[in-house]
Amino acid sequence: MGGLLPAGTSVPQDEIARRLGVSITPVREALRRLESEGLISYRAHRGATVAELSQDAARELYLLRGAIEGLCARLAADRITEAELGRLRELHERMLGEHRAGALEGLAEQSRTFHDLVAEAGGPAFLAEHLRSIWQSHPVPASSSLWHDKDNAGTFLRAHGELLDALARRDARTAERIMVEHLEIAADARGAPRIGTPR
What we know:
Helix content is about 65%, strand content about 5%. With about 200 residues, the chain is mainly alpha-helical. It folds into 2 domains: about 15-50, no CATH class; about 55-190, Up-down Bundle (Four Helix Bundle (Hemerythrin (Met), subunit A)).
């Protein structure tokens, strides 16, 4: 999927089969597999469509990411090398420059790289792979990225900078707190209701 099709987009089996030069059967099997992974849903009179996350599911997704990425950040504060810190700083500076220039298009992908680098530094054995699995199972379409809003992007970049400072100080608790809060703010910006609050 790669996050290229927005939620709700129709996935026409015939057209996919024609483009790939195959019969409809393998396409149908592939779509059923995507359905079992929660990426495709079937709707009456519409066929297969790209699945949409409910607001509750979106909040749970950000909570899950917060748990995993918060732990990654905490562990990274102890484990990160100077070379890894250097790569994160370089990426962060590039993102800041693009934000200042109003070039927001590539920030979402660069942010994912930033988060992946933190995860690799903190949990190279298991945690980083779990995080990638979540991203693959629930991709955010590029067209609906929160990074396209300059104010959101500025808020997220401040959090990245604070996280970098905490990692450089080897401050594990602060690194974890910043990462969890960063993802809570992202969930709020997406409009996902907080768990346990009245609606």
